[in-house]
Specification:
The complex is a heterodimer of chains A (about 150) and B (about 350).
Chain A lengths: L1 H34 L13 E6 L8 E6 L2 E7 L5 E5 L10 E3 L4 E3 L6 E2 L6 E3 L8 E7 L2 E5 L2
Antiparallel strand pairs in A: 1-10, 2-3, 3-4, 4-9, 5-6, 6-7, 7-8, 9-10
Chain B lengths: L2 H16 L1 H10 L1 E4 L8 H22 L7 H10 L4 H28 L8 H23 L4 H15 L5 H9 L6 H33 L5 H5 L4 E4 H26 L22 H12 L3 E2 L2 E2 H22 L5 H27 L1
Antiparallel strand pairs in B: 1-2, 3-4
Classes of the chains: A alpha+beta (about 150), B mainly alpha (about 350).
The complex binds protoporphyrin IX containing FE and FE2/S2 (inorganic) cluster.
Amino acid sequence: MIAGTRRVFVRWITGVFAALWAGMASYPFFRYLISGTKKKQAGEELVTSISLGSSEEFLPGASKNFKFGSAPALLVRSEDGAFHAYNAICTHLGCTVQYNEEKKNIWCACHGGVYDTASGKNLAGPPPKPLKALNVEVKEGEIIVSRA
Amino acid sequence: MSLTSSDNKFYSWLDDRVGVSGFIKAAEKKEVPVHKQSMWYYMGGIAMVLLAIQGLTGILLMVYYVPEISSAHSSVLFINTQIEFGWFVRSLHSWAANILIFILFVHMFSAYFMKAYRKPREVTWFSGMALLGICFAFGFTGYLLPWDEIAFFATKIGLDIAGKTPFIGGVIADLLRGGAEIGQGTISRFFLIHVILLPIALFAVAGLHLLLVQLHGMSEPESFKKAKKKKYEKFFPDFLVKDFMVWLFFFNLVAGIVALFPWGLGPEADPFAPAPAGIKPEWYFLAMFQFLKLLPPHIGPFEGEILGIAFFGVLALVLFVAPFIDTGKSKAVSKFFDVYGILFTIGFVGFTVWGMLD
Ligand code: HEM
Ligand code: FES
């Protein structure tokens, strides 16, 4: 009986130490693989604001997909003349959204998600959340987009 | 000395050292049941031939392919347009990959409906499912490598789905993506998974699978077991000759398809351009794609997506555990799995066709 419990105990302790050892041994390799995903890659810079040219030339109804830092973004000028900019990453499964001129809303080609142009709110299709908005200002006739 | 006797000398020399006669005896003893469903016994062998094509053409593609973000697309274009028979080698690799997945579905469901997963072939079944998983992973990682528009968005969606797995999803997606956005990190990681990790895994699991098939022999469907007169044929050489003919036919079929419909290449991926209209995944993901499109953004407190994916997980799990539950002791359970398999097939085919037409 005593021998039995001792055997169980020893087996248990061996298991615990084996698991600890396995965790310890794999930790460096896990860090090796994951840390590269958090560092900035060569040529990647943190962008806080970007100029998109003259507001005069960007007529109501026009839109533009552009690069904001390392992420895609979208600028739309609605018919009322107001500028709207968003992170162009669909909140559904991450495709890049675009402006639909005919329907005057923002649209994702992957599964047909639809967003409101003025607010970025998800209107139809599978997206669960609104688009992330960026700030747009017009300074001396120049469109400046910056992080909200 | 006659030719045969010197042959015999070499043969007996080899036999003493390698034991060839043992293999030949085993091969001669092996028998294959002959019945109405015998044609399904060819599917695994066809999968093997297609895998051989994949291995060979994969090595050839690596001669010119460059896994670097600004060269990947142009190196594939180079193979397609500048290298002699480059289009042929590349199309063979892409077409055979798709046909392989199709054949694996047929192989899996023929084993399923013949109840070949029952004792003692449970581990054969599990190793088979692992092989199917490995082949899906080959497909997913290989798809990104040409770095065209559609490859980029397919990977984006795939990684976002992986990222939605509770608890571990985020880390897994990060490990695969190799950075905040899909880019060089992703190409490097997908490339080495595709050309190093998966082939090693494939060799190990396929080795086990084939070993088990030899160990157990071919399973016999119920109707055959009950038959009064059972007909068998020798595996060596009778069945093997037919095997060879089927393989030859398949190789020619694939080469013919490739010559008529060479594989295309879309425009280079632009990570900042919107997704192109009409974008669709590969046909074997199309059923899931079409189903997910139907789901609302939220079902109760959950995202529709997560429930949808959990639902697919359960559907696949039922196939996985079939050998434990459908052991052959209960007629009702056996019937249930028949019906389940039929519904699964109809659902899969139906949603795939709908996705193609949509
Ligand atoms: C890389 C993929 C695969 C290869 C190369 C392969 C190869 C083979 C071969 C050569 C055979 C013997 C001939 C035959 O029955 O067709 C076989 C049998 C078998 N395979 Fe596979 N297979 C693969 C994937 C799968 C998958 C996805 C499953 C199902 C989950 C599976 C389940 C089975 C079963 C249960 C048998 C025994 C069939 C019987 O005894 O009647 N295999 N496989
Ligand atoms: S990724 Fe945009 S709708 Fe699915």
